[in-house]
Amino acid sequence: MDRSKTILCIGAGYVGGPTMAMIALKCPNYKITVVDINPKRIDAWMSDELPIYEPGLDEVVKKVRGKNLFFTTDIASSIRQAGIIFVSVNTPTKTFGAGAGRTANLQYWESTARSILEHAEEDTIVVEKSTLPVRTAEAMSRILKSGSKDVHFEVLSNPEFLAEGTAIQDLLDPDRVLIGAMETESGQAALQRLVDIYAHWVPKEKILTTNVWSSELSKLVANAFLAQRISSINSISALCEKTGADVADVSRAIGTDSRIGAKFLKASVGFGGSCFKKDILNLVYLCEYYDLPDVASYWQEVVTQNEIQSQRFVQKIIQKMFNTIVDKKIAIFGFAFKANTGDTRESPAIYVSQMLLEEKAHLAIHDPKALDNAKNDLQNCPGNISFYQDPYEAAEGAHCIALITEWDEFCHLDYERIFKQMTKPAFIFDGRNILDHARLHAIGFNVYPIGSEGLSHL
Ligand SMILES: NC(=O)c1ccc[n+]([C@@H]2O[C@H](COP(=O)([O-])OP(=O)(O)OC[C@H]3O[C@@H](n4cnc5c(N)ncnc54)[C@H](O)[C@@H]3O)[C@@H](O)[C@H]2O)c1
Asked: For the residues of 189-254, what is the DSSP string, one character each?
Protein backbone atom coordinates (compact mmCIF):
# COMPACT_ATOMS: atom_id res chain seq x y z
CA MET A 1 0.00 0.00 0.00
CA ASP A 2 1.05 3.58 -0.75
CA ARG A 3 2.94 4.83 2.38
CA SER A 4 1.36 8.26 2.07
CA LYS A 5 -2.03 6.62 2.63
CA THR A 6 -0.85 4.44 5.51
CA ILE A 7 -1.60 5.80 8.94
CA LEU A 8 -0.40 4.45 12.27
CA CYS A 9 -1.69 5.50 15.66
CA ILE A 10 0.43 4.71 18.71
CA GLY A 11 -1.86 4.39 21.75
CA ALA A 12 -5.18 2.53 21.58
CA GLY A 13 -7.00 4.37 24.35
CA TYR A 14 -10.05 6.62 24.67
CA VAL A 15 -8.65 8.94 22.02
CA GLY A 16 -6.61 6.69 19.70
CA GLY A 17 -9.32 4.03 19.25
CA PRO A 18 -12.36 6.20 18.43
CA THR A 19 -10.37 8.78 16.43
CA MET A 20 -8.80 6.18 14.17
CA ALA A 21 -12.11 4.33 13.78
CA MET A 22 -13.65 7.59 12.49
CA ILE A 23 -10.77 8.29 10.10
CA ALA A 24 -11.07 4.70 8.80
CA LEU A 25 -14.81 5.15 8.29
CA LYS A 26 -14.48 8.45 6.46
CA CYS A 27 -11.30 7.70 4.51
CA PRO A 28 -11.73 4.25 2.96
CA ASN A 29 -8.72 4.90 0.72
CA TYR A 30 -6.40 4.98 3.77
CA LYS A 31 -5.12 1.99 5.74
CA ILE A 32 -5.09 2.65 9.47
CA THR A 33 -3.31 0.60 12.10
CA VAL A 34 -3.52 1.17 15.84
CA VAL A 35 -0.78 -0.19 18.11
CA ASP A 36 -0.44 -0.38 21.86
CA ILE A 37 2.06 -1.81 24.31
CA ASN A 38 -0.85 -3.31 26.23
CA PRO A 39 -1.77 -6.60 24.51
CA LYS A 40 -5.02 -6.92 26.50
CA ARG A 41 -6.23 -3.60 25.09
CA ILE A 42 -5.41 -4.70 21.56
CA ASP A 43 -7.18 -8.05 22.07
CA ALA A 44 -10.22 -6.20 23.34
CA TRP A 45 -10.25 -3.87 20.32
CA MET A 46 -10.33 -6.98 18.13
CA SER A 47 -13.15 -8.61 20.11
CA ASP A 48 -16.87 -7.97 20.57
CA GLU A 49 -16.16 -6.37 23.98
CA LEU A 50 -14.33 -3.17 23.12
CA PRO A 51 -12.02 -1.89 25.89
CA ILE A 52 -13.99 1.34 26.30
CA TYR A 53 -17.69 2.12 26.40
CA GLU A 54 -18.69 4.93 24.09
CA PRO A 55 -22.14 5.30 22.51
CA GLY A 56 -22.03 4.48 18.77
CA LEU A 57 -18.43 3.23 18.84
CA ASP A 58 -19.25 -0.47 18.38
CA GLU A 59 -21.12 0.24 15.15
CA VAL A 60 -18.30 2.32 13.66
CA VAL A 61 -15.61 -0.22 14.62
CA LYS A 62 -17.64 -3.12 13.20
CA LYS A 63 -17.94 -1.34 9.84
CA VAL A 64 -14.20 -0.81 9.34
CA ARG A 65 -12.31 -3.37 11.44
CA GLY A 66 -10.49 -5.84 9.20
CA LYS A 67 -11.21 -3.66 6.13
CA ASN A 68 -9.04 -0.57 6.60
CA LEU A 69 -8.70 -0.50 10.40
CA PHE A 70 -6.32 -2.90 12.11
CA PHE A 71 -5.07 -3.40 15.66
CA THR A 72 -1.70 -4.89 16.57
CA THR A 73 1.07 -4.91 19.15
CA ASP A 74 3.77 -5.02 16.47
CA ILE A 75 5.08 -1.50 16.86
CA ALA A 76 8.30 -1.91 14.83
CA SER A 77 6.82 -3.08 11.54
CA SER A 78 3.82 -0.74 11.88
CA ILE A 79 6.19 2.22 12.17
CA ARG A 80 8.16 1.06 9.13
CA GLN A 81 5.04 0.94 6.95
CA ALA A 82 3.40 4.22 7.98
CA GLY A 83 3.79 7.58 6.27
CA ILE A 84 1.81 9.36 8.98
CA ILE A 85 2.07 8.44 12.66
CA PHE A 86 -0.38 9.80 15.22
CA VAL A 87 0.87 9.61 18.80
CA SER A 88 -1.98 9.26 21.24
CA VAL A 89 -0.34 7.85 24.33
CA ASN A 90 -1.26 8.86 27.86
CA THR A 91 0.38 11.97 29.31
CA PRO A 92 -0.61 11.78 32.98
CA THR A 93 0.49 14.16 35.71
CA LYS A 94 4.00 13.40 36.92
CA THR A 95 3.99 11.78 40.35
CA PHE A 96 7.71 11.95 41.12
CA GLY A 97 10.71 14.28 40.96
CA ALA A 98 10.71 17.86 39.67
CA GLY A 99 7.22 19.16 38.87
CA ALA A 100 5.57 16.19 40.64
CA GLY A 101 1.81 16.64 40.97
CA ARG A 102 1.75 19.32 38.26
CA THR A 103 3.66 18.87 35.05
CA ALA A 104 3.00 16.11 32.49
CA ASN A 105 4.87 12.84 32.70
CA LEU A 106 6.31 12.57 29.21
CA GLN A 107 7.98 9.18 29.60
CA TYR A 108 5.42 7.37 27.38
CA TRP A 109 5.62 10.19 24.90
CA GLU A 110 9.42 10.11 24.71
CA SER A 111 9.51 6.35 24.41
CA THR A 112 7.29 6.55 21.30
CA ALA A 113 9.63 9.18 19.83
CA ARG A 114 12.54 6.81 20.35
CA SER A 115 10.63 3.87 18.78
CA ILE A 116 9.80 6.00 15.73
CA LEU A 117 13.42 7.07 15.42
CA GLU A 118 14.61 3.46 15.70
CA HIS A 119 12.21 1.87 13.23
CA ALA A 120 11.26 4.49 10.62
CA GLU A 121 13.12 4.02 7.36
CA GLU A 122 11.58 6.76 5.22
CA ASP A 123 10.35 10.34 5.70
CA THR A 124 7.47 10.37 8.15
CA ILE A 125 4.92 12.85 9.48
CA VAL A 126 4.49 12.59 13.26
CA VAL A 127 1.25 14.00 14.63
CA GLU A 128 0.91 14.94 18.30
CA LYS A 129 -2.61 13.82 19.24
CA SER A 130 -1.91 13.58 22.95
CA THR A 131 -2.34 16.74 25.02
CA LEU A 132 1.12 18.12 25.70
CA PRO A 133 2.85 21.09 27.26
CA VAL A 134 3.52 23.88 24.81
CA ARG A 135 6.81 23.40 22.93
CA THR A 136 6.82 19.60 23.32
CA ALA A 137 6.99 19.28 19.54
CA GLU A 138 10.38 20.96 19.78
CA ALA A 139 11.66 18.19 22.09
CA MET A 140 10.10 15.58 19.79
CA SER A 141 11.83 17.10 16.77
CA ARG A 142 15.17 17.15 18.59
CA ILE A 143 14.90 13.46 19.49
CA LEU A 144 13.85 12.57 15.94
CA LYS A 145 16.76 14.56 14.47
CA SER A 146 19.30 12.78 16.67
CA GLY A 147 19.39 9.64 14.48
CA SER A 148 21.99 8.72 11.91
CA LYS A 149 19.56 7.62 9.15
CA ASP A 150 18.76 9.97 6.28
CA VAL A 151 15.09 10.29 7.25
CA HIS A 152 13.12 13.53 7.66
CA PHE A 153 10.46 13.75 10.38
CA GLU A 154 7.92 16.56 10.34
CA VAL A 155 6.10 17.07 13.65
CA LEU A 156 2.55 18.44 13.58
CA SER A 157 0.26 19.25 16.50
CA ASN A 158 -3.34 18.07 16.15
CA PRO A 159 -4.89 18.06 19.64
CA GLU A 160 -8.11 16.14 20.15
CA PHE A 161 -11.18 17.96 21.46
CA LEU A 162 -13.59 15.01 21.73
CA ALA A 163 -15.41 14.52 25.01
CA GLU A 164 -15.93 11.05 26.43
CA GLY A 165 -19.57 10.02 26.28
CA THR A 166 -20.10 11.97 23.03
CA ALA A 167 -16.86 11.00 21.27
CA ILE A 168 -18.47 9.62 18.12
CA GLN A 169 -20.73 12.63 17.63
CA ASP A 170 -17.81 14.98 18.39
CA LEU A 171 -15.64 13.21 15.82
CA LEU A 172 -18.39 13.11 13.20
CA ASP A 173 -19.23 16.78 13.52
CA PRO A 174 -16.43 18.58 15.36
CA ASP A 175 -16.69 22.28 16.30
CA ARG A 176 -13.26 22.54 14.74
CA VAL A 177 -10.16 20.52 13.91
CA LEU A 178 -6.95 22.24 14.93
CA ILE A 179 -3.64 21.59 13.20
CA GLY A 180 -0.38 23.30 14.05
CA ALA A 181 2.65 23.11 11.79
CA MET A 182 6.07 24.66 11.43
CA GLU A 183 6.12 27.64 9.10
CA THR A 184 8.62 25.94 6.80
CA GLU A 185 8.01 24.48 3.36
CA SER A 186 8.09 20.90 4.68
CA GLY A 187 5.90 21.89 7.65
CA GLN A 188 3.27 23.40 5.38
CA ALA A 189 3.37 20.39 3.03
CA ALA A 190 2.81 18.03 5.97
CA LEU A 191 0.00 20.24 7.25
CA GLN A 192 -1.73 20.00 3.87
CA ARG A 193 -1.58 16.20 3.99
CA LEU A 194 -3.32 16.17 7.37
CA VAL A 195 -5.88 18.75 6.21
CA ASP A 196 -6.62 16.46 3.24
CA ILE A 197 -7.46 13.59 5.59
CA TYR A 198 -9.92 15.61 7.70
CA ALA A 199 -11.38 17.28 4.60
CA HIS A 200 -12.93 13.89 3.72
CA TRP A 201 -15.74 14.83 6.12
CA VAL A 202 -15.00 18.06 8.01
CA PRO A 203 -15.96 21.32 6.23
CA LYS A 204 -12.86 23.30 5.26
CA GLU A 205 -13.85 26.36 7.35
CA LYS A 206 -13.79 24.18 10.47
CA ILE A 207 -10.19 23.08 9.91
CA LEU A 208 -8.10 25.69 11.70
CA THR A 209 -4.40 25.90 11.03
CA THR A 210 -1.85 27.66 13.25
CA ASN A 211 1.77 27.39 14.20
CA VAL A 212 2.69 24.42 16.39
CA TRP A 213 2.95 26.38 19.64
CA SER A 214 -0.49 27.99 19.34
CA SER A 215 -1.99 24.60 18.62
CA GLU A 216 -0.35 22.91 21.61
CA LEU A 217 -1.30 25.74 23.94
CA SER A 218 -4.89 26.02 22.64
CA LYS A 219 -5.73 22.53 23.85
CA LEU A 220 -4.57 23.30 27.40
CA VAL A 221 -6.40 26.61 27.33
CA ALA A 222 -9.64 25.07 26.01
CA ASN A 223 -9.72 22.61 28.90
CA ALA A 224 -8.76 25.31 31.41
CA PHE A 225 -11.63 27.56 30.22
CA LEU A 226 -14.16 24.71 30.35
CA ALA A 227 -13.09 23.68 33.83
CA GLN A 228 -13.02 27.31 34.95
CA ARG A 229 -16.72 27.69 34.10
CA ILE A 230 -17.54 24.66 36.22
CA SER A 231 -15.51 25.94 39.16
CA SER A 232 -17.03 29.40 38.76
CA ILE A 233 -20.62 28.17 38.92
CA ASN A 234 -19.72 25.74 41.71
CA SER A 235 -18.27 28.57 43.78
CA ILE A 236 -21.56 30.43 43.29
CA SER A 237 -23.50 27.30 44.34
CA ALA A 238 -21.91 27.63 47.79
CA LEU A 239 -23.18 31.20 48.03
CA CYS A 240 -26.65 30.17 46.83
CA GLU A 241 -26.95 27.60 49.61
CA LYS A 242 -26.30 30.37 52.18
CA THR A 243 -28.56 33.02 50.68
CA GLY A 244 -31.72 31.25 49.53
CA ALA A 245 -30.86 31.73 45.86
CA ASP A 246 -31.06 28.70 43.56
CA VAL A 247 -28.00 28.10 41.40
CA ALA A 248 -30.16 26.58 38.62
CA ASP A 249 -32.03 29.91 38.36
CA VAL A 250 -28.79 31.86 38.44
CA SER A 251 -27.29 29.65 35.69
CA ARG A 252 -30.35 30.13 33.52
CA ALA A 253 -30.42 33.86 34.13
CA ILE A 254 -26.77 34.40 33.24
CA GLY A 255 -26.60 31.70 30.54
CA THR A 256 -29.20 33.45 28.39
CA ASP A 257 -26.74 36.32 28.02
CA SER A 258 -25.23 35.55 24.62
CA ARG A 259 -21.86 36.87 25.80
CA ILE A 260 -21.81 34.19 28.52
CA GLY A 261 -23.65 31.29 26.87
CA ALA A 262 -25.56 28.47 28.52
CA LYS A 263 -23.16 25.51 28.31
CA PHE A 264 -20.96 24.27 31.14
CA LEU A 265 -22.91 26.27 33.72
CA LYS A 266 -24.38 23.36 35.64
CA ALA A 267 -23.41 23.23 39.28
CA SER A 268 -22.34 19.80 40.48
CA VAL A 269 -20.20 17.82 42.87
CA GLY A 270 -17.27 18.84 40.67
CA PHE A 271 -15.53 17.93 37.45
CA GLY A 272 -13.49 14.78 36.92
CA GLY A 273 -11.94 12.92 34.03
CA SER A 274 -8.39 12.28 33.02
CA CYS A 275 -7.91 15.67 31.36
CA PHE A 276 -9.18 18.80 33.13
CA LYS A 277 -7.14 18.62 36.31
CA LYS A 278 -4.01 17.34 34.62
CA ASP A 279 -4.16 19.94 31.84
CA ILE A 280 -4.74 22.86 34.21
CA LEU A 281 -1.93 21.73 36.48
CA ASN A 282 0.22 21.52 33.40
CA LEU A 283 -0.74 25.10 32.48
CA VAL A 284 0.04 26.22 36.03
CA TYR A 285 3.44 24.58 35.85
CA LEU A 286 4.17 26.21 32.49
CA CYS A 287 3.26 29.64 33.90
CA GLU A 288 5.58 29.09 36.84
CA TYR A 289 8.32 27.89 34.52
CA TYR A 290 7.99 31.09 32.47
CA ASP A 291 8.03 33.17 35.68
CA LEU A 292 4.34 34.15 35.65
CA PRO A 293 3.33 33.31 39.25
CA ASP A 294 0.16 35.46 39.21
CA VAL A 295 -1.16 33.73 36.11
CA ALA A 296 -0.25 30.37 37.66
CA SER A 297 -2.16 31.07 40.88
CA TYR A 298 -5.22 32.28 38.93
CA TRP A 299 -5.51 28.90 37.15
CA GLN A 300 -4.52 26.88 40.22
CA GLU A 301 -7.65 28.20 41.92
CA VAL A 302 -9.85 26.39 39.36
CA VAL A 303 -8.49 23.07 40.63
CA THR A 304 -8.64 24.14 44.28
CA GLN A 305 -12.31 25.15 43.96
CA ASN A 306 -13.06 21.77 42.44
CA GLU A 307 -11.52 19.96 45.38
CA ILE A 308 -13.43 22.19 47.81
CA GLN A 309 -16.69 21.38 46.01
CA SER A 310 -16.44 17.62 46.63
CA GLN A 311 -15.39 18.31 50.24
CA ARG A 312 -18.44 20.57 50.68
CA PHE A 313 -20.66 17.81 49.30
CA VAL A 314 -19.37 15.34 51.88
CA GLN A 315 -19.55 17.88 54.73
CA LYS A 316 -23.17 18.51 53.86
CA ILE A 317 -23.95 14.77 53.94
CA ILE A 318 -22.39 14.48 57.38
CA GLN A 319 -23.99 17.63 58.75
CA LYS A 320 -27.51 16.86 57.50
CA MET A 321 -27.32 13.27 58.74
CA PHE A 322 -26.99 14.46 62.35
CA ASN A 323 -23.22 14.96 62.24
CA THR A 324 -22.31 11.30 62.08
CA ILE A 325 -22.28 8.71 59.32
CA VAL A 326 -20.45 6.00 61.30
CA ASP A 327 -21.79 2.58 60.24
CA LYS A 328 -24.48 4.19 58.08
CA LYS A 329 -25.04 2.65 54.67
CA ILE A 330 -24.68 5.17 51.86
CA ALA A 331 -25.72 4.22 48.34
CA ILE A 332 -23.44 5.84 45.77
CA PHE A 333 -25.35 6.28 42.51
CA GLY A 334 -22.79 6.59 39.74
CA PHE A 335 -19.04 6.20 39.83
CA ALA A 336 -18.04 7.23 36.29
CA PHE A 337 -16.72 10.78 36.05
CA LYS A 338 -19.62 11.61 33.74
CA ALA A 339 -22.59 9.85 32.14
CA ASN A 340 -22.24 7.55 29.12
CA THR A 341 -18.74 6.39 29.89
CA GLY A 342 -17.22 3.71 32.08
CA ASP A 343 -14.17 5.92 32.70
CA THR A 344 -13.60 6.77 36.36
CA ARG A 345 -10.27 8.58 36.09
CA GLU A 346 -10.28 11.51 38.56
CA SER A 347 -13.99 10.94 39.14
CA PRO A 348 -15.36 12.98 42.07
CA ALA A 349 -16.85 9.63 43.17
CA ILE A 350 -13.37 8.46 44.14
CA TYR A 351 -12.75 11.44 46.43
CA VAL A 352 -16.27 11.45 47.86
CA SER A 353 -16.03 7.71 48.58
CA GLN A 354 -12.65 8.07 50.27
CA MET A 355 -13.94 10.88 52.51
CA LEU A 356 -17.09 8.94 53.40
CA LEU A 357 -15.03 5.85 54.23
CA GLU A 358 -12.77 7.90 56.47
CA GLU A 359 -15.94 8.84 58.39
CA LYS A 360 -16.63 5.08 58.67
CA ALA A 361 -19.71 4.99 56.46
CA HIS A 362 -20.55 1.76 54.59
CA LEU A 363 -20.66 2.26 50.84
CA ALA A 364 -22.97 0.46 48.40
CA ILE A 365 -21.83 1.49 44.93
CA HIS A 366 -23.89 1.22 41.77
CA ASP A 367 -22.93 2.31 38.27
CA PRO A 368 -24.30 0.99 34.97
CA LYS A 369 -20.89 0.89 33.24
CA ALA A 370 -18.09 1.68 35.67
CA LEU A 371 -18.20 -0.96 38.40
CA ASP A 372 -14.99 -2.73 37.35
CA ASN A 373 -13.09 0.54 37.34
CA ALA A 374 -14.68 1.52 40.66
CA LYS A 375 -13.46 -1.74 42.24
CA ASN A 376 -10.01 -1.02 40.95
CA ASP A 377 -10.02 2.59 42.19
CA LEU A 378 -11.07 1.62 45.72
CA GLN A 379 -9.09 -1.60 46.07
CA ASN A 380 -6.66 -0.10 48.56
CA CYS A 381 -9.25 1.84 50.56
CA PRO A 382 -9.95 0.28 53.92
CA GLY A 383 -13.61 0.10 54.91
CA ASN A 384 -16.92 -1.54 54.18
CA ILE A 385 -17.59 -1.31 50.42
CA SER A 386 -19.94 -3.35 48.25
CA PHE A 387 -20.77 -3.08 44.55
CA TYR A 388 -24.15 -3.58 42.88
CA GLN A 389 -25.28 -3.92 39.30
CA ASP A 390 -28.82 -3.19 40.54
CA PRO A 391 -29.57 0.29 42.00
CA TYR A 392 -32.47 -1.05 44.09
CA GLU A 393 -30.20 -3.54 45.85
CA ALA A 394 -27.63 -0.79 46.46
CA ALA A 395 -30.27 1.40 48.09
CA GLU A 396 -31.82 -1.36 50.24
CA GLY A 397 -31.49 -0.40 53.90
CA ALA A 398 -29.39 2.67 53.05
CA HIS A 399 -29.67 5.86 55.08
CA CYS A 400 -28.91 8.02 52.09
CA ILE A 401 -28.28 8.10 48.37
CA ALA A 402 -25.40 10.22 47.11
CA LEU A 403 -25.85 10.76 43.37
CA ILE A 404 -22.50 11.47 41.74
CA THR A 405 -22.92 10.73 38.01
CA GLU A 406 -25.67 12.19 35.81
CA TRP A 407 -26.76 8.86 34.26
CA ASP A 408 -30.18 9.37 32.72
CA GLU A 409 -31.41 6.08 34.22
CA PHE A 410 -31.28 7.66 37.69
CA CYS A 411 -34.11 9.98 36.66
CA HIS A 412 -36.35 7.03 35.80
CA LEU A 413 -36.00 4.81 38.88
CA ASP A 414 -38.98 3.91 41.06
CA TYR A 415 -38.17 6.18 44.01
CA GLU A 416 -41.31 5.16 45.91
CA ARG A 417 -40.00 1.60 45.95
CA ILE A 418 -36.53 2.83 46.90
CA PHE A 419 -37.91 5.03 49.70
CA LYS A 420 -39.81 2.08 51.20
CA GLN A 421 -36.62 -0.01 51.31
CA MET A 422 -34.44 2.65 52.93
CA THR A 423 -33.72 3.38 56.59
CA LYS A 424 -35.67 6.44 57.79
CA PRO A 425 -35.24 9.33 57.74
CA ALA A 426 -34.09 8.79 54.17
CA PHE A 427 -31.85 11.35 52.44
CA ILE A 428 -30.91 12.07 48.84
CA PHE A 429 -27.93 14.27 48.02
CA ASP A 430 -28.17 15.08 44.33
CA GLY A 431 -24.63 15.92 43.27
CA ARG A 432 -25.74 16.63 39.69
CA ASN A 433 -29.11 18.34 40.17
CA ILE A 434 -30.82 15.93 37.79
CA LEU A 435 -33.63 14.53 39.94
CA ASP A 436 -37.18 15.85 40.46
CA HIS A 437 -36.58 17.25 43.92
CA ALA A 438 -40.17 18.31 44.68
CA ARG A 439 -41.43 14.84 43.82
CA LEU A 440 -38.79 13.12 45.93
CA HIS A 441 -39.68 15.39 48.83
CA ALA A 442 -43.34 14.53 48.39
CA ILE A 443 -42.44 10.81 48.57
CA GLY A 444 -40.80 11.46 51.94
CA PHE A 445 -37.12 11.99 51.19
CA ASN A 446 -35.04 14.78 52.66
CA VAL A 447 -33.55 16.18 49.48
CA TYR A 448 -30.34 18.19 49.19
CA PRO A 449 -29.37 19.43 45.73
CA ILE A 450 -26.27 21.44 44.93
CA GLY A 451 -26.68 25.18 45.19
CA SER A 452 -30.09 25.51 46.84
CA GLU A 453 -31.42 25.17 50.34
CA GLY A 454 -32.90 21.70 50.05
CA LEU A 455 -36.28 20.21 50.93
CA SER A 456 -36.42 18.69 54.38
CA HIS A 457 -39.05 17.08 56.59
CA LEU A 458 -36.86 17.40 59.68
N1 LIG B 1 -9.72 10.87 27.22
C2 LIG B 1 -10.14 12.00 26.66
O3 LIG B 1 -11.31 12.36 26.71
C4 LIG B 1 -9.16 12.90 25.94
C5 LIG B 1 -9.65 13.91 25.13
C6 LIG B 1 -8.75 14.71 24.45
C7 LIG B 1 -7.39 14.50 24.59
N8 LIG B 1 -6.93 13.52 25.40
C9 LIG B 1 -5.48 13.31 25.49
O10 LIG B 1 -5.14 12.22 24.63
C11 LIG B 1 -4.06 11.46 25.19
C12 LIG B 1 -4.47 10.01 25.35
O13 LIG B 1 -5.55 9.98 26.26
P14 LIG B 1 -6.42 8.65 26.46
O15 LIG B 1 -7.55 9.02 27.34
O16 LIG B 1 -6.69 8.04 25.13
O17 LIG B 1 -5.36 7.74 27.27
P18 LIG B 1 -5.44 6.17 27.53
O19 LIG B 1 -4.68 5.93 28.76
O20 LIG B 1 -6.86 5.70 27.41
O21 LIG B 1 -4.66 5.55 26.27
C22 LIG B 1 -3.29 5.68 26.06
C23 LIG B 1 -2.76 4.35 25.52
O24 LIG B 1 -1.40 4.54 25.13
C25 LIG B 1 -0.71 3.31 25.38
N26 LIG B 1 0.72 3.53 25.39
C27 LIG B 1 1.47 4.19 26.33
N28 LIG B 1 2.76 4.19 25.96
C29 LIG B 1 2.85 3.53 24.77
C30 LIG B 1 3.91 3.24 23.90
N31 LIG B 1 5.15 3.62 24.16
N32 LIG B 1 3.63 2.53 22.78
C33 LIG B 1 2.36 2.15 22.48
N34 LIG B 1 1.30 2.42 23.27
C35 LIG B 1 1.55 3.11 24.41
C36 LIG B 1 -1.28 2.85 26.69
O37 LIG B 1 -1.07 1.47 26.90
C38 LIG B 1 -2.77 3.22 26.54
O39 LIG B 1 -3.54 2.15 26.04
C40 LIG B 1 -3.69 12.15 26.50
O41 LIG B 1 -2.65 13.05 26.26
C42 LIG B 1 -4.97 12.92 26.85
O43 LIG B 1 -4.69 14.06 27.62
C44 LIG B 1 -7.78 12.69 26.06
From this structure: HHHHHHHHHHTTTS-GGGEEEEEHHHHHHHHHHHHHHHHHHHHHHHHHHHHHHHHT--HHHHHHHH
